[in-house]
Amino acid sequence: MFRYEKPLFEKKRLLRIEMLEQLRDYPRDYLEILYSGYSDGIVCGCTLSWNEEELMITPGILKHKERLYFMKNPVYLECKPEDRVRYLKVQFLAMVQENSKEIGNTRMYLNDKHPDSACELELCRFRLQEGARLRGEYENFADCTTEFDTIHLVDVPWSSPETATLHPKILSRYATEILKKESRDGLDTSFAFAVLANTGELPERVIRIYIEERLGNQVEAGNRGLYLGLKKILEIGRDNLRQQKQGGARRQVMLL
């Protein structure tokens, strides 16, 4: 049965262990219920920036094998240009029991090996050249996968109901761009508004249904397939607009 219970703290009254346990357990219980059924991936935070050969990762929450991992303080990693693809990963170490607690530690590091999905989670990938700066802002949607000197987030799993989804930064970039297209239709507008209203977060199945409805065929599996599908919709929009303008010009010539 549902139950409401709140500890009351009053002057000259002793604190009971049960009252303190309620305060301790409530945040954890709330989040575990809220994200029950969500996939492994980033739950929130973990924003990336680079400055003076140092990569900064802001505080955030990750989900891995039904457990929520919290990072309360930013992390700084040495990140010098090496002109090769490097992956920023979080490795989940074996669970241990210590002082009546179950503890799951992690290790964050950079290397050139593809993440092992069994025990690692990718936060980004990039290829930084000598003398260049690593950037995380994109000029357009296609720029999200520029090979050099760009933080790639397309393959990063963002926690979502049932299946990991695209990073909110990728979806927000798409929504902003599709709204500027003269050739968009009502479905594009509705989808873009849904993305922006949810600060860039949408379940994988919603994105997949939208792409399949617009393109008329199934989407490749994984985040890469979703990204390529969205990219194709933008490209089709440009082609259609170009054809409309060319057709209008031809009709005008014929009338003259």
Task: Describe the structure using short key phrases.
single chain, about 260 residues, alpha+beta, three-stranded antiparallel sheet, 5 helices, about 35% helix, globular
Task: Give an account of the 3D structure.
This protein has 256 residues and is α+β, with helices and mostly antiparallel strands. 34% of the residues lie in helices and 21% in strands. The protein has five helices and eleven strands. The strands form four sheets. A three-stranded antiparallel sheet has the order 1-4-5, with no helix packed on it. A hairpin with a 2-residue loop joins strand 8 (96-98) and strand 9. The longest helix has 34 residues, at 222-255. The chain is globular.
